[in-house]
Structures are given as structure tokens and as C-alpha cells.
Amino acid sequence: MTAQIIDGKAFAAGLGDRIAEKAATFTEKAGRAPGLAVVLVGSDPASEIYVRSKGRMARKLGMESFEHTLPEDTTQETLMDLVAQLNADETVDGILVQLPLPRHLDSLSVIEAIDPAKDVDGLHPLSAGYLTSGLPGLVSCTPLGCLMLLKDQLGSLSGLDAIVVGRSILVGKPMAQLLLAENCTVTMAHSRTADLPEKVGKADIVVAAVGQAEMIKGEWIKEGATVIDVGTSRVIRDGEKHLVGDVDFASAATRARAITPVPGGVGPMTIMTLMHNTLIAAYRRKGYDVPELGA
Ligand SMILES: NC(=O)C1=CN([C@@H]2O[C@H](COP(=O)(O)OP(=O)(O)OC[C@H]3O[C@@H](n4cnc5c(N)ncnc54)[C@H](OP(=O)(O)O)[C@@H]3O)[C@@H](O)[C@H]2O)C=CC1
Ligand SMILES: Nc1nc(=O)c2c([nH]1)NC[C@@H]1CN(c3ccc(C(=O)N[C@@H](CCC(=O)O)C(=O)O)cc3)C=[N+]21
């Protein structure tokens, strides 16, 4: 079997068209565009690239982008003050603080300071609680994008066995909650999981969010499974830089029914679901009926 390659870039582009249309409707009604504030502390080159592409995409879809870059030695107090200022700013609908923060800063208290109505990253404990309770809140961008791709591939996920490898607050935990809400039977695996290959081998859906280059081998994958690869690791091979996922793509593609590539799979969806969440936050904050985005 040769797997179908799931084109996250194309799916994200389609979603972007619908978001742009609804952003224009919002702008007409509200007299201002939906606004996204992105906060970057320090100068990690990968983070700088992501933050820039988020700002560029927001503007492309007709949203306002407020980019705040703070120096590496920013104090907790300065960062908390900025979050408070963004919370109070009526023109800001979404706030994203790029992670990881420099080590001297406490990320959890920064995240907790974000107004949950503006928590477009879905990282606030209240957002996590809404998701677990099945209440409408904002869902972490990457898992939301993965779910959209899975539903597009499979239609109903009900009754399927899913495994999520990785249990971070950003990806693994919310991913498992979303799959559970879709009536999957969910296994959550992590660094202490025993017999990971065997557990992966039982799953109809594999979501890998580990951060270890190509650790999940094709032989582990059940024939006909759908594989979503969240991981992004930079490796040097034959003297050239490559971006690879957590799944050994070549071997997994011989067994899976469908698989996301890296790059071009989950990554573009993460940026587009951030735009999706910003739009939803803008509509909710204004008390407008939230539009259907077909996702
Ligand atoms: N494409 C995209 O849009 C995005 C990509 N990413 C990428 O996804 C990856 C994961 O990100 P994130 O969740 O933030 O990472 P974290 O480092 O926060 O979490 C990694 C998780 O993987 C688990 N883990 C580590 N090693 C193993 C192992 N050998 N076997 C099984 N589980 C293991 C850890 O277990 P334990 O809890 O026991 O330590 C942990 O739960 C990274 O490569 C990141 O760059 C992240 C966000 C968005
Ligand atoms: N508060 C917070 N929220 C995040 O969502 C968040 C974060 N912090 N910190 C870091 C991770 C990582 N992340 C990615 C986003 C897009 C791509 C992406 O677009 N990747 C492209 C390739 C880009 C390239 O070539 O480097 C792709 O996969 O096709 C990847 C990774 C968001 N994260």
C-alpha cells in the first residue's frame, strides 16, 4: 500500500479563503478588523520565523497584527504588564505568547494572566477545562488543525482506536480530548510508556507529537491507519539541513492509508487555525453570531 499524502497546505489555503471572507464581514460590522497580538521574548531564530509568518498571514486575511518583540532579558513584571495592556485593549481579540520563553520567566503565570476570551492558543487552564467539559472555548491550534485533517480524511471518527504520542499541554493533552469528544477510544503515550510499538500497532489513528526525529517506525503502524505527524525536528543529513517529523515517513507511507508530510502537513494548519481562533474570538467578544467555517 502507498499512503495518500495529506496536503495540509492546500487544506489550510481553503480554510483561509473562508476566514478572509468572514473577517471582511466582521470588519464591516465592527468598524475595525479582527486583531491578533503576538508576543515574542528573545531572538530564537525558529520562533522569529513563526512569529513573522503568523503576522503575515493575519494581514493577508484582512486582520490586524500587533507584533511585540521584547529583549531576552525582559523581566516577568514587564511581560505581565504587556499582557495586562493587551487584555485591556479593545482592538486586540487574540493574544499569543510564543513558547518557549527564556528560562528565567515563568510561562504558566504569563499564560494564566491572558484573558481567556483572547486565549487563541487555548493554553489557559480555563480553556483546557472548557475543552474537557465539552463547553465552547478556544481550542489549541495544532490539535484543532490535526482534527480538521482527520475529519476531512475519515468523516466520522466514532469507535476508532486512536493513540496520541506526547502529552504536552500545547499538543498531546488537548489532542486526546478532541479525539475523545469524537468518540475515539484514546491511548495517551509518553516517555514512560511501555511497549510503545505494540500500542501504536493497535491504532487506527496515530498522532505523533514527541519532538524526536523519525522515532516512530513504519513497521509499528497498523496497515491502513491514518498518521498525523506533528513533530518538527531539524536534522543535518549529507551536509544539508532537513526538517523531519516524529514518524519515519518513507516506511510509514508503505503501511498507512494516509499520512501528513513534514513540512506541508500539520505546520500550515497550525497557522491557519490560529487565524480561525482569532476570528472566532473577535465574533464572540462582540456578541455576534459565530460564523460556520466548515471546519
Ligand atoms: N507543526 C506544528 O504546528 C507544531 C509542531 N510542534 C512540534 O511537535 C513536537 C512536540 O511538541 P510539544 O508537544 O510542544 O513537545 P514537548 O517537548 O512539550 O512534549 C513532548 C512529549 O513527548 C513525550 N516523549 C518524549 N520522548 C518520548 C519518547 N521517546 N517516547 C514517547 N514519548 C516521548 C514527552 O513525554 P513526557 O511527558 O513523559 O516527558 C512529552 O509528553 C515538537 O517537535 C514540536 O516542535 C509543536 C507545536 C506545533
Ligand atoms: N504559544 C505557542 N503556540 C504555538 O503554536 C507554538 C509555540 N508557542 N511554539 C512553537 C510551536 C511550533 N509551532 C509551529 C508552527 C508552524 C509550523 C510550520 O508552519 N511549519 C512548516 C515548515 C516551516 C519551516 O520550514 O520551518 C511546515 O510544517 O510545513 C511549525 C511549528 C507552533 N508552536
Describe the structure.
This protein is α/β, with parallel strands linked by helices. The longest helix has 23 residues, at 8-30. Helix 2 (45-60) links the parallel strand 2 (35-41) and strand 3 (64-70). It has helices at residues 8-30, 45-60, 76-88, 107-113, 125-133, 141-154, 172-181, 196-200, 249-252, 266-286; strands at 4-5, 35-41, 64-70, 94-97, 161-165, 185-189, 205-208, 226-229, 233-237, 240-244, 258-259. 45% of the residues are buried. It has 10 helices and 11 strands. It has 2 domains: 31-116, Rossmann fold, CATH 3.40.50; 141-268, NAD(P)-binding Rossmann-like Domain (Rossmann fold). It has a 6-stranded parallel β-sheet. Strands 3-2-4 form a 3-stranded parallel β-sheet, sandwiched between helices. It is 41% helix and 17% strand. 5,10-Methenyltetrahydrofolate is lined by residues 50, 96-99, 121, 141-142, 232, 243, 262-264, 267-268, 270-271. Its EC number is 1.5.1.5, 3.5.4.9.
Helices and strands in order:
Elements: E1 4-5, H1 8-30, E2 35-41, H2 45-60, E3 64-70, H3 76-88, E4 94-97, H4 107-113, H5 125-133, H6 141-154, E5 161-165, H7 172-181, E6 185-189, H8 196-200, E7 205-208, E8 226-229, E9 233-237, E10 240-244, H9 249-252, E11 258-259, H10 266-286
Parallel strand pairs: 1-11, 2-3, 2-4, 5-6, 5-7, 7-8, 8-11
Antiparallel strand pairs: 9-10
Helix pairs in contact: 1-10, 2-10, 6-7, 6-10
The structure holds NADPH dihydro-nicotinamide-adenine-dinucleotide phosphate and 5,10-Methenyltetrahydrofolate.
Residues 142, 165-168, 170-172, 189-193, 196, 209-212, 215, 230-233, 266-267, 270 line the site of NADPH dihydro-nicotinamide-adenine-dinucleotide phosphate.
